[in-house]
Automatic annotation (TrEMBL):
Region (Disordered): 257-293, 339-368, 522-547
Skewed-composition ranges (Polar residues): 341-352
Protein name from the UniProt record: Protein Mut11
SUPFAM superfamilies found in the cross-reference section: WD40 repeat-like
UniProt keyword annotation of Repeat present: yes
Biased composition (Acidic residues): 530-547
InterPro entries registered for this protein in UniProt: WD40/YVTN_repeat-like_dom_sf, WD40_repeat_CS, WD40_repeat_dom_sf, WD40_rpt
Protein source organism: Geodia barretti
PANTHER family (alphabetical): F-BOX AND WD REPEAT DOMAIN CONTAINING 7, WD40 REPEAT PROTEIN
A Pfam family that the UniProt record links to this protein: WD40
Domain of life: Eukaryota
Keywords annotated in UniProt: Repeat, WD repeat
Mapped WD repeat ranges: 58-92, 384-429, 485-516, 589-624
Length: 624
C-alpha cells in the first residue's frame, strides 16, 4: 500500500469536517463555513497530488459545515449536498451553484443519497431520518414508505436520534448510528412500494382506479364518499400529486328532473347484497336534492371506472346504478384552439422554410392538443340511468363496423346494457344475461366485465363462480353466448383479457387464479376479407380451450394484466402478486395492511398502482 501526501491547497482556514471524492473532483466542507471544490490536475513524480480550486464558497452556510455527500442524477449530472450547524441542508450543482435550501429543526449531522429511490436521507435530531426529493427540495417522508414501522417503534426517544448516515452501494444498504451508540441498517427492498398516499377522503377508502396514458398522465379514483378525484403528478416531484374533485351535481339534477317529468324510475335499488348498500325504498319519494345528498353518503359511492382514450372520456359507475361520463369542456376547448390557431398563423408568417418542419409541427400539434384538453378540464357530459342495482362491470368497445365507441355495463340487476358513449344514448339491454340452465342463488350478481378486441367477444363474471363469453354486436339481441368458463367454486371477482398472450384471465374468492388457454394461437383481424374465417377459428378455439390454475393462498379481490409483458398481477388479500403467462409466481409485494380493492398498470411509468381498505394508495415498480 502506498500513502501519498496531498499538497496543501489554500482553501480552508479551519478544520475540514467532511470530504467527498467524485471522479477527479474533491469536495470539502469545514468549520470555517466554506465549501470548496478542487480538481485533481495530474499525478506528479514525487507522489504528491496537485489540486486546483475550481470553486470556493466562503459563506456556504451560516455556521460550520458538518456533513457532505455527492450524488449522481438520472441524467449523469452531480448533486452536492451539505449540512450545517445552522440547521440547513443546501443542494448545489457539481460546480458549486446553490439550487435548494432545506430548513431543518435541528443541527444536520448526517446525509446520504440513495440512487434506487432517488431520495436524500437527512439526520437532523429526529429518531428516524427525514427523506427529501432533491430536485424539488420537498419533504417526502410521509409519502416514501422506505422506513418500516419496526424501526420506527424501536427508536422513538430523543436519546436514540440518528447521528450519522452512510450509503453502501455494493449491498444497497444505509447504515446509521445513534446517540445511544447503536447502529441501524436499512436494506433496499425492490418489491416495496415506491410511494404511498392516503385516500383523498379521510372518511373512506378508494374503491376504483383508472388512468389516461396521454401526457400529462392523470389518475382517477373513486370511493364510497361519492367523489371522483383526479390525480396529477407534480413535474419536479415524483412522490407528490395534486388532487381535484370532479363535479356531477348539476347534470345529475337534470337527469332526475327529466325522469320525474317522464314518470320514469331510473337507478337506485333493485337486487343487492345486504350490508353493502341500502334498498330502493330508501330513495323512493325523495326530493331530487335529497337523492343527490344520499348518493354522497356511505353507501352511494363509486365502485368501478374506466377511461376511453379515443374519446377522452372518463366513465364511473356508482352503487345506486347511475353511470357518469366526464369529458372535456367543449366551449373551453374551442376557445383555446382558436387562440392556438391565431398564435400559429402569426408564427407561420415569419417562417420561410416549411419542408423540414412538417414532422415536428405534427408532434407539436398533438402535444398542444393534449395540453388544451387538460387545461379545459373535465365536465360531466352524460348521466346514464337505467340499471336498478349497483354497477360494478364496465367495458368500452370500439366498433369497426360503424366507427362508434360503445360502453357495456353490467349490474347487480343481472342486466347488460349497451350505451353509445358519444351521445349517452341507451342502445339496448340484455335482461336475461345468466342462462336459465345455471342455478342461481339469492345474491347472484354480475361482478366484472372485459372485452377482447381481436376476438370481438366480451366476458362477464358472476358471484356464483361462472364466467360467460358472448359475441359482441351492435344490438344486444345478437349477443350470442359462445362459451362458459366453468371451474371456480366461489365468486369470480375479476375477469380480464390478456392482449399479450391472447387469453382470458380470472381471479376468484376461492383463492385461485385461472388462465383459459386456447390450443390455437390468437390472430388479429387486420383485413376485412379474413374476418369471417377468423371468427370460425376463434369459435373453435373457444370450444377447445383448456384451463390453467394456480392457488394464490388468499382470496383474490382484483386482477390486472401488465400490458407490456403480459404478466398477471393480482391482489391476494393485502399482498400484490405477479405471475408470468404460465402462472408461475415471480414476485410478492407487501405493504398494505388490508384487502386490495383496485389495481391498474401504467406502462409509460412502469408502475402498478393499488388502493386498499387500509385507506392508502400505493405505487409499485412494475416487474420487468
Amino acid at each position: 500500500m502506498y500513502i501519498y501526501t496531498v499538497a496543501w491547497v489554500p482553501g480552508h482556514t479551519g478544520i475540514v469536517r467532511c470530504l467527498n471524492i467524485a471522479g477527479n473532483k474533491i469536495y470539502s466542507g469545514g468549520y470555517d463555513k466554506k465549501l470548496v471544490v478542487q480538481e485533481v490536475v495530474s499525478l506528479s513524480g514525487d507522489g504528491e497530488i496537485p489540486l486546483k480550486i475550481v470553486r470556493e464558497r466562503d459563506a456556504a452556510h451560516d455556521a460550520g459545515v458538518t456533513c457532505l455527500t455527492v450524488a449522481k442524477d438520472t441524467d449523469g449530472s452531480s448533486w452536492v449536498v451539505s449540512g450545517s450547524f445552522d440547521k440547513k441542508v443546501k443542494l448545489w450543482t457539481g460546480d458549486g451553484k446553490l439550487v435548494h435550501i432545506i430548513q431543518c429543526s435541528d443541527t444536520v449531522t448526517g446525509l446520504c443519497y440513495v440512487p434506487q429511490t432517488m431520495v436524500l436521507w437527512v439526520a437532523a435530531g429526529t429518531p428516524l431520518p427525514l427523506l427529501y426529493e432533491p430536485k424539488s427540495g420537498d419533504n417526502v417522508t410521509d409519502y416514501a414508505p422506505i422506513l418500516n414501522t419496526t424501526s420506527a417503534t424501536l427508536h422513538t426517544n430523543r436519546e436514540s436520534t440518528v447521528q450519522l448516515l452512510k450509503y453502501i452501494p455494493e449491498t444497497s444498504e444505509v447504515i446509521g448510528s445513534t446517540k445511544l451508540k447503536g447502529v441501524i441498517c436499512w436494506r433496499y427492498n425492490p418489491t416495496c412500494s415506491v410511494c404511498c398516499h392516503h385516500s383523498p377522503s379521510t372518511s373512506s377508502h378508494v374503491e376504483t382506479l383508472t388512468f389516461t396514458s396521454k401526457v400529462p398522465i392523470l389518475i382517477f379514483s373513486g370511493g364510497f364518499t361519492g367523489e371522483v378525484v383526479k390525480w396529477e403528478q407534480l413535474q419536479l416531484n415524483s412522490f407528490l400529486y395534486s388532487v381535484d374533485s370532479l363535479s356531477y351535481k348539476e347534470p345529475l339534477m337534470k337527469a332526475i328532473e327529466s325522469e320525474e317529468d317522464d314518470g320514469g324510475g331510473g337507478g337506485g335499488g333493485g337486487r343487492g347484497r345486504a350490508g353493502k348498500r341500502r334498498g330502493s325504498e330508501e330513495m323512493a319519494g325523495m326530493p331530487r336534492e335529497r337523492k343527490i345528498e344520499a348518493m354522497k353518503g356511505e353507501n352511494r359511492g363509486f365502485v368501478s371506472s374506466l377511461f376511453v382514450e379515443s374519446l377522452d372520456l372518463l366513465v364511473a359507475s356508482s352503487l345506486d346504478g347511475t353511470i357518469f361520463v366526464w369529458g372535456n369542456d367543449k366551449r373551453t376547448v374551442e376557445v383555446l384552439e382558436e387562440m392556438q390557431r391565431n398564435s400559429a398563423s402569426e408564427t407561420s408568417t415569419t417562417d420561410t422554410v416549411a419542408g423540414d418542419r412538417e414532422s415536428s409541427n405534427h408532434v407539436q400539434q398533438e402535444s398542444s392538443s393534449n395540453v388544451i384538453t387538460r387545461v379545459a378540464g373535465f365536465t360531466c357530459l352524460h348521466v346514464l340511468r337505467s340499471h336498478t342495482g349497483c354497477v360494478e362491470a364496465l367495458a368500452a368497445v370500439e366498433d369497426w363496423t360503424d366507427g362508434r365507441t360503445y360502453l357495456i355495463s353490467g349490474g347487480w340487476d343481472l342486466t347488460l346494457n349497451l350505451w353509445d358513449l358519444s351521445t349517452g344514448r341507451l342502445v339496448g339491454s340484455l335482461g336475461e344475461s345468466v342462462p336459465d340452465r345455471y342455478p342461481s342463488h339469492p345474491n347472484l350478481i354480475i361482478t366484472s366485465l372485459a372485452f377482447s378486441p381481436p376476438r370481438r367477444k366480451f366476458a362477464y363474471s358472476t358471484s356464483d363462480g361462472q364466467v360467460f363469453v358472448r359475441q359482441f354486436a351492435v344490438s344486444p339481441d345478437d349477443w350470442v353466448l359462445v362459451r362458459t368458463l366453468d371451474g371456480h367454486t366461489a365468486e369470480v371477482t375479476q375477469v380480464c383479457w390478456n392482449g399479450v398472450s391472447g387469453h382470458w384471465v380470472t381471479g376468484s374468492s376461492d383463492c385461485t387464479l385461472r388462465l383459459w388457454v386456447g390450443q390455437k394461437k390468437e390472430k388479429k383481424d387486420k383485413k376485412e376479407e379474413e374476418k369471417e374465417e377468423m371468427e370460425k377459428e376463434e369459435e373453435e378455439e373457444e370450444e377447445e380451450g383448456e384451463e390453467m390454475c394456480v392457488s394464490a393462498g388468499d382470496p383474490i379481490s382484483v386482477v390486472c394484466v401488465d400490458q407490456t409483458t403480459g404478466h398477471i398481477v393480482a391482489g391476494a388479500q393485502n399482498n400484490l402478486k405477479v405471475y408470468n403467462r404460465d402462472l408461475e409466481l415471480l414476485q410478492v409485494s407487501r405493504g398494505h395492511t388490508d384487502s386490495i380493492r383496485t389495481l391498474i398498470h401504467i406502462p409509460d411509468r412502469k408502475q402498478y398502482v393499488t388502493a386498499s381498505w387500509d385507506g392508502t394508495v400505493r405505487f409499485w415498480r412494475a416487474h420487468h
